[in-house]
Design brief:
globular, 12 helices
């Protein structure tokens, strides 16, 4: 048509080349640029896949005793070697990894949920309740965690075993105790976020429109405070795995016939000079898990930081 102005190819090219933007996609781009975190995420994914599905490929029973192969070094028949009873360490490592990771993630869930609830209540409270909850958090932070863990385990281990069985009772006890002693940093972090966010303009606008306090927390404040909580959750996973391994190494965790990584280390303590492989593989698994989780936490911190400009 005469007089019509053709579209500029430069503008069309820019529109086509423009990448879609969303908060999740932007966080993924930032996380992808953090190479140690990206490599750690790949390594952790591989470990989880091996732990979850390795028993379907490596079908050696964890309690299969072969005295002829006891304390064998790594070989084709036993890639991780054997212990003093000839039990295959690879099969026991795969089985123990399920328990160790399950304890870590379950204890993290307990700590994050409990800390988020307490921190949110303290952050929204303008009276004595917030001060009391933070005083309670400071009190728990001042207590030595390992002796407190030992006391709680001695008091409740037998009763929980009688109700939920040897493995289930110990699992519930360790998860509740470790998670119940890890909520304080999360609560303090959430409270600090709530104290800052509750004075923002979008919260004031929601309050002026008649939104209830519960709606403001659930729809406006809590979603904006989840970034630091996710980062704290990765730290809690690593801490829970270390604490479970410590309890198992002290002989106060799962029963001896349940091979967690810490329990395997405990059993190998008297054979370090003649069978170092027995302690090397579970120690390396704990070290690798904790390091990768910490690197993932560093990457999430950079990815979820809204003030960070790429």
């Amino acid at each position: 048509m005469a007089g019509s102005i053709p579209a500029s190819p430069t503008v069309e090219g820019a529109a086509v080349a423009a990448k879609p933007w969303s908060p999740g996609l932007d966080a993924w781009r930032r996380f992808r640029r953090h190479r140690p975190a990206l490599v750690s995420a790949v390594v952790m994914s591989i470990m989880i896949v091996v732990i979850l599905f390795g028993s379907f490929v490596w079908k050696v029973p964890i309690n299969d005793i072969d005295f002829r192969a006891k304390l064998s070094t790594p070989s084709f028949a036993h890639p991780f070697g054997t212990d003093d009873l000839g039990q295959d360490l690879l099969a026991r490592m795969i089985y123990g990894g399920k328990i160790s990771l399950a304890v870590g993630f379950a204890a993290m869930f307990v700590a994050v949920v409990l800390g988020t609830i307490i921190g949110a209540i303290a952050g929204m409270s303008r009276g004595w309740l917030g001060s009391f909850l933070m005083w309670l958090a400071d009190l728990f932070l001042s207590l030595p965690q390992l002796p407190l863990l030992l006391v709680v385990i001695y008091l409740f281990r037998d009763s929980l075993k009688s109700v939920f069985g040897p493995e289930g009772g110990v699992f519930i006890m360790i998860v509740v105790v470790i998670g119940g002693l890890r909520w304080m940093p999360v609560a303090r972090l959430v409270r600090a976020q709530f104290l800052s966010l509750r004075e923002k303009e979008f919260v004031e606008a929601a309050r002026a429109l008649g939104a209830s306090k519960t709606r403001m927390v659930v729809r406006h404040i809590l979603p904006n405070a989840l970034g630091p909580v996710i980062i704290a959750a990765t730290i809690d996973v690593a801490a829970a795995i270390i604490q479970e391994s410590t309890l198992s190494f002290l002989g106060l965790g799962f029963p001896p016939d349940i091979p967690t990584w810490g329990r395997i280390l405990f059993d190998a303590r008297d054979f370090l000079d003649i069978a170092p492989h027995w302690a090397l593989f579970p120690g390396a698994a704990i070290f690798l898990t904790v390091v990768t989780i910490n690197f993932i936490g560093d990457g999430l911190r950079d990815a979820l930081d809204a003030r960070r400009v790429m």
